[in-house]
Write a structure and sequence with these properties.
By secondary structure, the chain is of the alpha/beta class. It has two domains: 1-31; 50-170, Collagenase (Catalytic Domain) (3-Layer(aba) Sandwich), CATH 3.40.390.10. Helix content is 25%, strand content 23%. Strands 2-1-6-7-5-3-4 form a seven-stranded mixed sheet, covered by helices on one side. Helix 2 (60-79) crosses helix 3. The protein is globular and about 45 Å long. The chain binds zinc ion.
């Protein structure tokens, strides 16, 4: 989760969770987490798995940042960390969906992005979603909007770093206590 200029694992997508439950899925319970747990209750993807991901709602430039982030994770996972989890863009039967919406989270309007496992088996993620809230804003008056989609290198770097961060949750990583996402958000 990306909240304001600070990242935390607090959130989830209520709408998508509801859809999941309505669809008959048995969600194992990690969704009830709120606040900033120090440990994720669900581990990441199974080791050695090949994860397919799809994106929706992004511009092509934003999409490129998503791809770069997932390539970075793949390089690290298959290069020197032990998970050996790889990610590839594939619209058919994806495990991981990244979507962008113009609105804001109904959990917390200041969430810039949030990730949530949708299906878990044996403590590992089977399917996951990350949502970017372009309309994220503070509750102050006037509100401060987190995202400034001005097409600047700074903006695209923020899309990249946010995706790197959110994908880290799908790898079972919790928040870094002092992580600050730099730049305009
Ligand atoms: Zn986070």
């Amino acid at each position: 989760m990306l909240k304001g200029r600070r990242s935390s694992i607090a959130g989830f997508f209520l709408g998508m969770i509801s859809a999941w439950l309505v669809a008959g899925g048995a969600y194992p319970g990690a969704v009830s987490e709120a606040g900033c747990p120090t440990l994720l209750s669900v581990q990441g993807w199974f080791p050695n798995s090949s994860i397919l991901y799809e994106t929706a709602g992004f511009t092509s430039e934003e999409q490129n940042e998503i791809h770069d982030a997932m390539e970075d994770w793949t390089a690290n996972n298959t290069g020197w960390n032990c998970s050996n989890v790889s990610f590839s863009n594939n619209l058919f039967g994806p495990n991981y969906t990244m979507i962008a919406v113009d609105g804001f989270s109904n959990v917390d309007s200041s969430f810039g992005a949030a990730s949530q496992p949708f299906q878990v088996n044996l403590g590992h993620i089977i399917s996951e979603g990350t949502i970017f809230y372009w309309g994220a804003h503070t509750d102050t008056s006037p509100p401060i909007y987190l995202w400034n989609r001005n097409g600047s290198p700074d903006y695209y770097r923020c899309v990249l770093t946010t995706m790197l961060h959110e994908a880290g949750h799908s790898m079972g990583l919790s928040e870094r206590p002092f992580l600050i996402v730099q730049g305009k958000l």
